[in-house]
Amino acid sequence: MEQQYILALDQGTTSTRAILFDHDGHKVATAQKELPQIFRQSGWIEHDANVIWEHARQVMAEVVINANIKPYKVASIGITNQRETTVLWNRRTGEPIADAVVWQSKQSDIFANALKEQGLTQKVYDKTGLWIDSYFSATKIMWLLENVPGARELAAEGDLLFGTIDTWLLWKLTNGAVHATDYSNASRTMLFNIHDLQWDEELLALFDIPANILPEVRDSSGIFGYTAEFVFFGLQVPIAGIAGDQQAALFGHQAFKTGDVKNTFGTGSFIVMNTGEQPAISTHGLLTTIGYGLDGKVTYALEGSVFIAGAAIQWLRDGLQLIINAQETAEMADRSRENHPKRVYLVPAFTGLGAPYWDQNTRGAMFGLTRATGREDIVRATLESLAYQTKDVLDAMISDTQLDISTLVIDGGAAANDYLQRFLADLIATPISRPDQLETTALGVAYLAGLGVGYWDSVATLPNSDEVTVELPDEQHAEDMQVAYQGWQKAVEAARMFPLDVE
Ligand SMILES: Nc1ncnc2c1ncn2[C@@H]1O[C@H](COP(=O)(O)OP(=O)(O)O)[C@@H](O)[C@H]1O
Ligand SMILES: O=P(O)(O)OC[C@H](O)CO
């Protein structure tokens, strides 16, 4: 058979990428565009949905050109996306009614606080698996309906559509023919009942969100629709896989067994455990969510969402200008460890604390500064904060599930950092496995899109070609790690005693 390819479109917080995979699961080519972040007010982060769409089109064309293949050799397309980020658009014009409200954005805090004050926390968790927070789409939709002139009228006329980024891109790719999402993305809206697998009418009424703006929810694998002719070299290519990026990464690691767990270190850090066909209930601040829907069945997951991970490294570079690039941080941290035994702690709660604390009123803090503290120590504290946040979540997962974690698999941009991988292995006293190819998110949705058109027959026959680097914990560091973690816990406690009032 002539070689065909799967095109994965990975629309992340900071960039839009298209990656082509071959039948062996090898990456054949990549194309990428940075996505401008819009900061209109303190705490707000928005994206221009039209720019996202334009970039998506461009990278899809570029990747085919970079790979030097005929476009008709693309067997199917998969979409994976930054989750929760909310777009509302006009069905008739295809124009967004406002900039997309990004998952990290805080403008709807006031709505989230109001829902908590109404005593809805447990009800919302029981239905959606989510702890009320402005992170999820629901309060973002409420904010847009309230603040964009004419939004409610448009909804009343049946001309307003809501989507997370997957839905927006699917709608654009099909030229408005398909308004749909998959279970994994729906489960992040705080509107979807993860037990009944339906939009929850009671919550929609409580939040005053009209049901007619919502997309249809489908399995993560299967044909959603076809590219409109003007979109992709005049071809009608099936879009056959959709998953939120964190769930796609779980799938990309082939973490199909109950208890399999991964952490993706991108802008944020998302630790996700496969919990099988039954939803696991958390009493430690984790989210119960849908991993993926496949062959008419959903697989559930537990998730710890950490808002700031690689973003803290970007802050060192662009905000503090302490580093020139992210790559140099590993060696800087090594030097700090050699020269300065005294630890500095950074609590990178720049947009509040996610799992397991869910405290949107805390902001970042640094502890342990002395006259001898230098930039290498701050860099090290920043990298170590990514590991401490991971341990916070893993401890919660172990308590919730009573499962042992034999290995943690990691991926995402910051997973390339050797210092982080070593420190994390020591801190959690668990081997850390890192694939050499860190595009696990894209690979995951490529698998889904390939399965959706029979390019691969079943999950059992998916290729697994990645080389991995395994970092084993060093027992000699065990005692030091206990002390270090206690210091982190004190730092978090202290940061939380200095709350910002919500405006
Ligand atoms: N060597 C590195 N060490 C630490 N952080 C890194 C390194 N390389 C990239 N990063 C961080 O990884 C993030 C980008 O990862 P990526 O998976 O592309 O994120 P996203 O999908 O959220 O846009 C950036 O925040 C960047 O600071
Ligand atoms: O774009 P990423 O990779 O930072 O992922 C963002 C998450 O999906 C937000 O929930």
From TrEMBL:
<feature type="binding site">
    <location>
        <position position="84"/>
    </location>
    <ligand>
        <name>glycerol</name>
    </ligand>
</feature>
<feature type="binding site">
    <location>
        <position position="310"/>
    </location>
    <ligand>
        <name>ATP</name>
    </ligand>
</feature>
<comment type="pathway">
    <text>Polyol metabolism; glycerol degradation via glycerol kinase pathway; sn-glycerol 3-phosphate from glycerol: step 1/1.</text>
</comment>
<dbReference type="GO" id="GO:0006072">
    <property type="term" value="P:glycerol-3-phosphate metabolic process"/>
</dbReference>
<comment type="function">
    <text>Key enzyme in the regulation of glycerol uptake and metabolism. Catalyzes the phosphorylation of glycerol to yield sn-glycerol 3-phosphate.</text>
</comment>
<keyword id="KW-0319">Glycerol metabolism</keyword>
<dbReference type="InterPro" id="IPR000577">
    <property type="entry name" value="Carb_kinase_FGGY"/>
</dbReference>
<feature type="binding site">
    <location>
        <position position="310"/>
    </location>
    <ligand>
        <name>ADP</name>
    </ligand>
</feature>
<feature type="binding site">
    <location>
        <position position="17"/>
    </location>
    <ligand>
        <name>ADP</name>
    </ligand>
</feature>
<dbReference type="GO" id="GO:0004370">
    <property type="term" value="F:glycerol kinase activity"/>
</dbReference>
<feature type="binding site">
    <location>
        <position position="83"/>
    </location>
    <ligand>
        <name>sn-glycerol 3-phosphate</name>
    </ligand>
</feature>
<feature type="binding site">
    <location>
        <position position="245"/>
    </location>
    <ligand>
        <name>glycerol</name>
    </ligand>
</feature>
<feature type="binding site">
    <location>
        <position position="246"/>
    </location>
    <ligand>
        <name>glycerol</name>
    </ligand>
</feature>
<dbReference type="GO" id="GO:0005524">
    <property type="term" value="F:ATP binding"/>
</dbReference>
<feature type="binding site">
    <location>
        <position position="14"/>
    </location>
    <ligand>
        <name>ATP</name>
    </ligand>
</feature>
<feature type="binding site">
    <location>
        <position position="413"/>
    </location>
    <ligand>
        <name>ATP</name>
    </ligand>
</feature>
<dbReference type="InterPro" id="IPR005999">
    <property type="entry name" value="Glycerol_kin"/>
</dbReference>
<comment type="similarity">
    <text>Belongs to the FGGY kinase family.</text>
</comment>
<feature type="binding site">
    <location>
        <position position="314"/>
    </location>
    <ligand>
        <name>ATP</name>
    </ligand>
</feature>
<feature type="binding site">
    <location>
        <position position="135"/>
    </location>
    <ligand>
        <name>glycerol</name>
    </ligand>
</feature>
<dbReference type="Pfam" id="PF00370">
    <property type="entry name" value="FGGY_N"/>
</dbReference>
<feature type="binding site">
    <location>
        <position position="13"/>
    </location>
    <ligand>
        <name>ATP</name>
    </ligand>
</feature>
<feature type="binding site">
    <location>
        <position position="83"/>
    </location>
    <ligand>
        <name>glycerol</name>
    </ligand>
</feature>
<protein>
    <recommendedName>
        <fullName>Glycerol kinase</fullName>
        <ecNumber>2.7.1.30</ecNumber>
    </recommendedName>
</protein>
<keyword id="KW-0808">Transferase</keyword>
<feature type="binding site">
    <location>
        <position position="267"/>
    </location>
    <ligand>
        <name>ATP</name>
    </ligand>
</feature>
<dbReference type="InterPro" id="IPR018483">
    <property type="entry name" value="Carb_kinase_FGGY_CS"/>
</dbReference>
<dbReference type="InterPro" id="IPR018485">
    <property type="entry name" value="FGGY_C"/>
</dbReference>
<keyword id="KW-0418">Kinase</keyword>
<feature type="binding site">
    <location>
        <position position="135"/>
    </location>
    <ligand>
        <name>sn-glycerol 3-phosphate</name>
    </ligand>
</feature>
<feature type="binding site">
    <location>
        <position position="245"/>
    </location>
    <ligand>
        <name>sn-glycerol 3-phosphate</name>
    </ligand>
</feature>
<feature type="binding site">
    <location>
        <position position="15"/>
    </location>
    <ligand>
        <name>ATP</name>
    </ligand>
</feature>
<dbReference type="InterPro" id="IPR018484">
    <property type="entry name" value="FGGY_N"/>
</dbReference>
<feature type="binding site">
    <location>
        <position position="13"/>
    </location>
    <ligand>
        <name>ADP</name>
    </ligand>
</feature>
<keyword id="KW-0067">ATP-binding</keyword>
<comment type="subunit">
    <text>Homotetramer and homodimer (in equilibrium).</text>
</comment>
<dbReference type="GO" id="GO:0019563">
    <property type="term" value="P:glycerol catabolic process"/>
</dbReference>
<dbReference type="Pfam" id="PF02782">
    <property type="entry name" value="FGGY_C"/>
</dbReference>
<feature type="binding site">
    <location>
        <position position="13"/>
    </location>
    <ligand>
        <name>sn-glycerol 3-phosphate</name>
    </ligand>
</feature>
<dbReference type="InterPro" id="IPR043129">
    <property type="entry name" value="ATPase_NBD"/>
</dbReference>
<dbReference type="GO" id="GO:0005829">
    <property type="term" value="C:cytosol"/>
</dbReference>
<feature type="binding site">
    <location>
        <position position="413"/>
    </location>
    <ligand>
        <name>ADP</name>
    </ligand>
</feature>
